[in-house]
């Protein structure tokens, strides 16, 4: 136990996520660490007249929530520097126009405009002319919600040299063309990324975006995150993190995987550069923990890497981005040398199968079975590969928020891959049963929500809530994979303790126990026992980082 009198005393209904003492009523804190967790009587014996008391009464205290895959810079960028259409129904084209035009009119000083959040199902018949009607004299770009596709107006098509020749070079599956072979303005994957990240963002701008993100995360009870590809939007993001950390303004525990290009020329050098940054800049609140790679794209853009062809595109298996097995194996092995992991975007079963094969080859070379490499999204996974996830100690990053069969979206998934594969998307319980480390991610702001209570609900119900159900049951016809549901305790583990393990931080965070960081989320709801309907309306009362309240409702 940490010696001395307690500096702070927290009182409430404490769920510790600690096996030895799962529930408590009081907790004392010295500095940024937990001194004691247990009874009120014993806790008060450690206090004196100088001890600050935070009595949350009948509210519920949890370990600070942890998210295994987010995009902090993108959150702030979309929140401050772009027109956000993520809350609009994709069929409501007039609302899109209204929001984007209002942003354009409000910023006449800008030389180009960006909007984001379009659900890709709405791209079916949309071309550059749609955006030309909003703005024709300056480049205007509309990013999809998932960030893997983008729609350009004619001015942007011209600015970035998107010609018929360019489409032939890159492939018309990535640069869409009309019946005359001319680009429609729709790009995805590599061509999309080149355009979407072309705008120069200063370090000061990036700092403002990251602070916006930090406040948002705290307001949702999150005290630690993984920024998956921290500088994917702009290289200034890394410098912004470092400066905020030096200025003591970064309080959100950020674990960053840094981007590595598809089929990078020199995997050894790529790992070495990232390891040097980790050695130079890692601190308490900011840690570089490995490399981020894209193996494939997303189903809605027909770029997820599958083992069986798309139903609506016979013979086509999707887009294979990082697909060189020798280079991937080298990258994994080199990261292992420095105590770092590889974090892979892996939507399709072909991508996951490829990644696991490379991990197995790297482990034979290094003997390192505790690297804790990560596969994120896992929309499609072959049953035999679920067991391989556990056998290779590969962390399964799963999105409970994406599991429902969404009306208007599910029909498109069936069209893409057939009813059987569409129904089998996003396994979760299967990973748990196989013994894999399972963690939740929101992929915010790709998801419109980062809510931990809603994630618990979705993990337990895998469907949209029925507004007519007083008990918060899922609406009939929206449940996908009823055999893949988790218990609420399993869901909470995937938001706390399991993520700390992924970060190699299980001794510091993920549960409330003596010696660990005093990071907490205080809610008005018992996530383990309250009616499911209450999970959907749960409120964050306060968020505590290093023993200090950083957010209060």
Structure summary:
The protein has 20 helices and 21 strands. By secondary structure, it is of the alpha/beta class.
Name the poorly predicted regions.
Answer: none
Total beta strand runs? 21
What is the share of helical residues? 25-40%
Main sheet, how many strands, which sense, barrel?
8 strands, parallel
Strand percentage lies at: 15-25%
SS-derived structural category: alpha/beta
Give, in spatial order, the strands making up the sheet with the most strands: 5-12-13-14-15-16-17-18
Mean pLDDT: 93
Task: Count every helix, treating DSSP H or I runs of 4 or more residues as helices.
Answer: 20
Question: Cα distance, first to last residue?
Answer: 32 Å
Q: What's the gyration radius in Å?
A: 23 Å
Q: Which term fits the overall shape?
A: globular
Q: Oligomeric form of this entry?
A: single chain
What attributes does this structure have?
553 residues; alpha/beta; 8-stranded parallel sheet; 7-stranded mixed sheet; 20 helices; 22% strand
What does this structure look like?
There is one protein chain. By secondary structure, the chain is α/β, with parallel strands linked by helices. It has an 8-stranded parallel sheet with strand order 5-12-13-14-15-16-17-18. Strands 3-2-1-4-19-20-21 form a 7-stranded mixed sheet. Helix 11 packs across helix 12 (349-366). The longest helix is centred in the middle third of the chain and has 18 residues, at 349-366. The protein starts with 7 loop residues before the first strand and ends with a strand.
């Amino acid at each position: 136990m940490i010696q001395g009198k307690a500096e702070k005393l927290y009182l409430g209904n404490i769920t510790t996520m600690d096996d030895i003492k799962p529930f408590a009523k009081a907790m004392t804190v010295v500095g940024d660490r937990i001194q004691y967790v247990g009874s009120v009587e014993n806790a008060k014996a450690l206090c004196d007249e100088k001890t600050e008391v935070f009595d949350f009464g009948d509210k519920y205290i949890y370990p600070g929530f942890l998210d295994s895959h987010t995009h902090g810079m993108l959150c702030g960028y979309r929140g401050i520097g772009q027109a956000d259409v993520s809350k609009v129904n994709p069929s409501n084209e007039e609302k899109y126009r209204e929001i984007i035009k209002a942003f354009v009119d409000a910023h006449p000083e800008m030389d180009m405009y960006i909007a984001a959040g379009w659900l890709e199902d709405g791209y079916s018949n949309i071309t550059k002319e749609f955006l030309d009607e909003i703005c024709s004299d300056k480049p205007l770009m509309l990013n999809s919600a998932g960030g893997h596709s983008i729609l350009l107006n004619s001015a942007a098509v011209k600015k970035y040299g998107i010609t018929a020749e360019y489409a032939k070079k890159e492939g018309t599956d990535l640069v869409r063309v009309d019946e005359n072979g001319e680009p429609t303005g729709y790009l995805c994957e590599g061509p999309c990324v080149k355009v979407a990240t072309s705008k120069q963002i200063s370090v000061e701008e990036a700092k403002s975006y990251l602070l916006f993100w930090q406040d948002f995360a705290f307001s949702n009870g999150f005290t630690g995150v993984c920024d998956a590809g921290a500088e994917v939007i702009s290289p200034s993001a890394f410098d912004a993190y470092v400066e905020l950390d030096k200025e003591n303004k970064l309080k959100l525990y950020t674990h960053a995987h840094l981007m590595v290009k598809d089929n990078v020329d020199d995997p050894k050098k790529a790992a070495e550069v990232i390891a040097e940054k980790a050695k130079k800049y890692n601190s308490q609140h900011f840690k570089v923990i490995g490399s981020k790679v894209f193996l494939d794209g997303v189903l809605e853009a027909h770029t997820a890497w599958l083992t069986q062809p798309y139903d609506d595109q016979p013979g086509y298996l999707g887009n294979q981005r990082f697909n060189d097995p020798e280079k991937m194996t080298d990258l994994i092995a080199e990261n292992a040398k420095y105590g770092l992991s590889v974090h892979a975007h892996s939507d399709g079963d072909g991508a996951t199968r490829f990644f696991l094969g490379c991990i197995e080859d790297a482990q034979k070379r290094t003997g390192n079975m505790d690297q804790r490499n990560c596969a994120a999204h896992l929309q499609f996974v072959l049953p035999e590969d679920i067991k391989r996830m556990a056998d290779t100690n590969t962390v399964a990053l799963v999105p409970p928020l994406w599991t429902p069969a969404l009306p208007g979206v599910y029909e498109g998934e069936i069209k893409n891959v057939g009813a059987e594969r569409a129904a089998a998307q996003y396994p979760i319980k299967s990973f748990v049963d196989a013994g894999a480390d399972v963690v939740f991610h929101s992929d915010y702001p790709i998801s419109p929500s980062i809510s931990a209570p809603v994630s618990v609900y979705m993990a337990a119900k895998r469907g949209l809530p029925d507004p007519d159900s007083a008990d918060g049951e899922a609406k009939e016809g929206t449940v996908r994979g009823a055999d893949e549901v988790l218990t609420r305790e399993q869901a909470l583990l995937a938001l706390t303790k399991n993520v700390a393990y992924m970060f190699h931080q299980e001794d510091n965070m993920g549960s409330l126990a003596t010696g660990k960081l005093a990071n907490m989320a205080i809610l008005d709801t018992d996530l383990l026992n309250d009616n499911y309907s209450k999970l959907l309306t749960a409120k964050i009362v306060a968020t505590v980082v290093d023993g200090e309240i950083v957010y209060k409702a």
